[in-house]
Amino acid sequence: MKIKVMTDLLEANDRIAADNREIFDRNGNLVINLMSSPGAGKTTLLERTAEALAGKVRLGVIAGDVETSRDAERMEKYNLPVVQLTTGTACHLDANMVASALPDLDLSQIDILLIENVGNLICPAEFRVGEDHKVVILSVTEGDDKPLKYPLMFKESSLLILNKIDLLPFTNFNMDEAKGNAHRMNPDLDILELTATTGQGIEGWLSWLKERWQRRLESLRRA
Ligand code: MG
Ligand code: ZN
Asked: What's the rounded Cα separation, in Å, for the pair 90 and 137?
């Protein structure tokens, strides 16, 4: 019975996600759903991305948080369209919440829409929001066995970002182990290493993003 309820819930979610997707298609947006544990560096990565792409790519941000608007406030200084979604008790963003943010964004003026999901490695992976790609951030201050503990997150993602690599000498995080575990869950997963706070390795992420955006435009042109 419980399984049935969950299935209905996800089906309803997927219908709304498909509606969001149509809106993104119409506006030519590349949409990235950014997920991680709390504190892994989602907002810091958004800040570096906003700095690096200012004047080159038009970004928009939807920031999901359980309570505060601190992350959205951090993004405001970059002069981007930012919408805060405060989820209350919900530990993930779903398609309906993202749909509710869309009227507050001029999507026709946005190239890449970055959605910062609620910090949580479990249910955000279950809810499609109409994105092109899910991206998971794992910081090296967490365990290298996380891909084994939260397999769905890694299976659903197109890219894994290993963040805070400057802290590697102070941890027992095994980089090869982490990558191996992640690829065991998802052989197609792209993996990048960087430190969002210092910007080290950020170019890899920026080229990944721009390449995906080009591919998105090409596929929309063909459609
Ligand atoms: Mg954040
Ligand atoms: Zn949840």
From this structure: 20
pLDDT by residue (tens digit) across 38-80?
999 999 999 999 999 999 999 999 999 888 888 888 888 899 9
Domains of the chain in sequence order:
2-222 (3.40.50.300)
Residue 133 reports pLDDT greater than 90: yes
- Using CB atoms within 10 A of its CB, is residue 22 exposed (0-12), middle (13-18) or buried (19+)? exposed
Q: How far apart are the first and last CA of the chain?
A: 40
Contact 190, 208 (CB under 8 A): yes
Burial 169-192 (b: 16+ CB within 10 A, else e): eeeebeeeebbebbeebbeebeeb
- 89, pLDDT greater than 60: yes
Ligand closest to 64 (CA) is 1
Q: Which ligand is nearest to the CA of 73?
A: 1
Structure confidence by residue, pLDDT tens digits, 160-216 = 999 999 999 999 999 999 999 999 999 999 999 999 999 999 999 999 999 999 999
Using only the alpha carbons of the chain, give its radius of gyration.
17
The reported pTM is 0.95
* DSSP label of 105: S
Q: From the CA of 42, how far away is ligand 1's center (Å)? A: 5
DSSP 195: B
Distance 125 CA to ligand 2 centre (A): 9
- Cα–ligand 2 centroid distance for 95 (angstroms): 12
CA of 43 relative to ligand 1 center, distance in Å: 4
